[in-house]
Design goal:
- It is built from 11 helices and 8 strands.
- With 245 residues, it is α/β, with parallel strands linked by helices.
- The chain has a single domain, classed as Alpha-Beta Barrel (TIM Barrel).
- The protein is globular.
- It binds phosphoenolpyruvate.
Length: 245
């Protein structure tokens, strides 16, 4: 059965209320926090589940400015976000680079949070399912067989940071398609253990529509995760997810 996750992606921000105040407020939330690299150790000292937002596609060596998955593990990270759309669109990360990062994260014994999702044009043309399936196919590296767990985050690009979230019905359709693609392309048994999250302008106001169908395993949250009260409201909403079969 897939684990359920609520993940705070701070991006290149820290909560306006301050890291310590924020962490004190959310200390009992069953969540994962993804701060910028340089705050990983500080956050890990106060909160159990920590994720990095990115990692290098190499183990070590002459790669100025990069941080390896092993180093992230040494800083207390248990998870690494890979292939976030901001990495894909702003920094030009392609499926090949993301597949190498996936390999590094698995080799380091960490859990990858692999982000996928279509852009607006692809959705309008009716290609969202096909595009997401292709991204999962591109991530089907042999090392997946060694992974204890993988998290897939469906994050349609048009919904990230825009205030326009996908509807519960859209998410339900894509989650079904993602499970099918995982069965087809990924090693036996991994699909049923893979958590599928939704991300894209999730807030306490729209979360109930997104959980209603009961197929989603949680959320990757950007903007609304920067305020401890809003993030705690999302942690409460996670408790309203229907019981797993
Ligand atoms: C994200 O950064 O992954 C994200 C989903 O951001 P937001 O919630 O702000 O759309």
């Amino acid at each position: 059965m897939p684990n359920r996750y609520l993940i705070a992606n701070w991006k290149m921000n820290i909560p306006p209320e301050g890291i310590v105040t924020y962490l004190d407020a959310v200390k009992d939330a069953n969540a994962v926090i993804a701060p910028p690299f340089v705050y990983l150790k500080d956050v890990a000292a106060r909160f159990a589940n920590i994720s990095a937002q990115n990692c290098a596609d190499q183990k070590a060596g002459a790669f100025t400015g990069e941080v390896s998955a092993d180093m992230l593990r040494d800083c207390g990270a248990r998870f690494v976000i890979i292939g976030h759309s901001e990495r894909r669109t702003i920094y030009g990360e392609d499926d090949g680079l993301i597949a190498r990062k996936l390999e590094m994260v698995i080799d380091a014994g960490l859990t990858p949070i692999l982000c996928i999702g279509e852009n607006e044009q692809q959705r309008e043309r009716g290609h969202a399912v096909e595009f997401c399936s292709d991204q999962l196919c591109a991530a089907a590296i042999p090392q997946l067989a060694n992974a204890n767990e993988i998290v897939v985050a469906y994050e349609p690009i048009w919904a990230i940071g825009t205030g326009r979230n996908a509807t519960g019905a859209m998410v339900a359709e894509i989650v079904g398609a993602i499970r099918d693609a995982l069965e087809r392309f990924w090693p036996d048994g991994l699909a049923s253990r893979t958590s599928i999250l939704y991300g894209g302008s999730v807030t306490p106001d729209n979360v109930d529509d997104l959980i209603a169908d009961g197929r989603i395993d949680g959320f990757l949250v950007g903007g609304a995760s920067l305020d401890s009260k809003r993030f705690l409201a999302l942690a409460e909403a996670m408790k309203r997810l229907p019981a797993q079969p």
